[in-house]
Design brief:
The protein is mainly β and 316 residues long. The protein has three helices and 22 strands.
Amino acid sequence: MPKLVSALAALALAACATTTARTTGPEPLATRIMQLDRTTQWRAVSETPIPFDTHHPQGMVRIGGDFFVTSVEIIRPTQRYPQPIAGLDRDAGEGRGHLFRITDAGVLKSDIPLGEGDIYHPGGLDFDGRHLWIPVAEYRPDSRAIIYRVDPQTLEVHEAFRFPDHIGAVAFDSVANALIGVSWGGAKIYRWPLQPDGTVTAADLAAPPAGRARSHYIAWQDCHGLQGSMMLCTGLSNYSRPGGGANLSLGGVELINMSDLRPLWQSPIQLWSPTGRSMTQNPAWFETTPGGLRAWFMPDDDTSTLFAFEAQLPAN
């Protein structure tokens, strides 16, 4: 009987993995995103305290009722060099990479280590309906990264390939069966066609960047692929007034055409946590509702809260 229960549980998770937000309508999700603007009113739905040290959360996806959240634990911060050394502007620091599996009530179910040595900074992750794709990089620009493929049912971690740049986020293109990789600050965007075994050919790894981020008001932190070769990215930038004064942290959401990296829609998200951080500081996940959108955010470090907001949008 226990084996039957275990098998049924695995089947249930597999079903959730293919009926998560993406089958509630990735195309309707893109349509709803393109209804957002600076006048959109967001309603707070819930605030769930996370009862463990989350360190520095980075990216988030929701599968069924669980959230998979990447995070970097900083043991020793990086230190800038007086002058660049071998093309690097700082040392590697020291840290650990984590993939947390958290229930919607904030309970930690699993903590999976990611990375090796100086490569310990997980970034924004994506889910292709079967696997999680997670970049883990050195905590400095122009460095190197490992792209992992993780089974959300078994939590088995497989190295897919390595890349000689800092990759801060990845998104899956279901039309091209490819990954889009975003470098530090969105300075470069890479496209990697995936082989049947989830690897990338040497020729594709050596290909030049496909482009660079065309966003000028936020730096992408977390990106997710939608059907139709569209990519939903969130992030923020900090703005300061000349001569001093309070800084402003402004977050936003952007919809990108993955085939030509053309921006389709951009909108600010005027939401901040009680600490003053933009809600799109790092992890963000969006789903459709019957009347609009629901979004989850986890902007704060160490002692985090999972925030949920809803926006009612005009009927099409």
